[in-house]
Amino acid sequence: QLLARRLGATPTDVDAALRLIRSLKPRPGERPVDSENEAVVPDLIARKINGRWRVQLNPSSTPGIGINRHYENLIGKASREDDSYLRGQLQEARWLIRNVEQRYTTIQRVAAAIVNRQQMFFEYGQVALRPLMLKEIADALEVHESTVSRATSNKYMITPRGIFEFKHFFSRELATDSGGSC
């Protein structure tokens, strides 16, 4: 009641405010994330251009990283000791940028190979999805199967038929009694 008088509020309002404050979490990042309600930003866009299916990176999903030219130009003007340190940092930044670019190039190559092998799906929908293994894509791109697995993990593609996780395009082939597969 003392708090209510000091705030010029009713005891009911103070009780409601206290209930609200007690319901809040002081460390909201510690709670598990509900991935079911997570928004998906597609990494790639598949569309038909001039009668051929093409894949391109989604500009809103790729990081825009670069080296600030102003700071790069200051390196030569630094003291000898600082210059050496800064040149090392600049080299590491260039490696990071190159590795990120290489990663996105790999993701795009994998997506293009998937689209190439699943063209019937893109034309006719789910009924035309054919069996596809990670190994098939890895062999086509001449990379290890684990590279394809990493490149497709938690990656999404937007198509005229909707947004699909890369995993959607892969399935297991089952052998039939007659020697074929389904």
Describe the structure.
The protein is an alpha+beta fold. The protein is 47% helix and 11% strand. It is built from 7 helices and 4 strands, in the order H-H-E-E-H-H-H-H-H-E-E. The chain has helices spanning 2-7, 11-23, 69-74, 80-117, 119-124, 134-141, 145-152, and strands at residues 44-49, 52-57, 156-159, 162-165. Strands 2-1-3-4 form a 4-stranded mixed beta sheet. Strand 3 (156-159) and strand 4 (162-165) form a beta hairpin. Helix 4 crosses helix 6 and helix 6 (134-141) crosses helix 7. The radius of gyration is 27 Å and the shape is flat. The mean pLDDT is 86.
Give the fraction of residues assigned to helices. Answer: 40-55%
Query: What structural category do the secondary elements indicate?
Result: alpha+beta
Q: What is the radius of gyration?
A: 27 Å
Poorly predicted residue ranges: none
Q: Strand percentage, roughly?
A: 5-15%
Order of the strands making up the biggest sheet: 2-1-3-4
Oligomer: single chain
Q: How many beta-strand segments?
A: 4
- Counting DSSP H or I runs of 4 or more residues, the number of helices is 7
Largest β sheet strand count, sense and barrel closure:
4 strands, mixed
> Globular, elongated, flat, extended or rod-shaped: what is the shape?
flat
Overall average pLDDT: 86
Alpha-carbon distance between the two ends: 74 Å
| Helix-strand string | HHEEHHHHHEE
Features of this protein?
alpha+beta; 182 residues
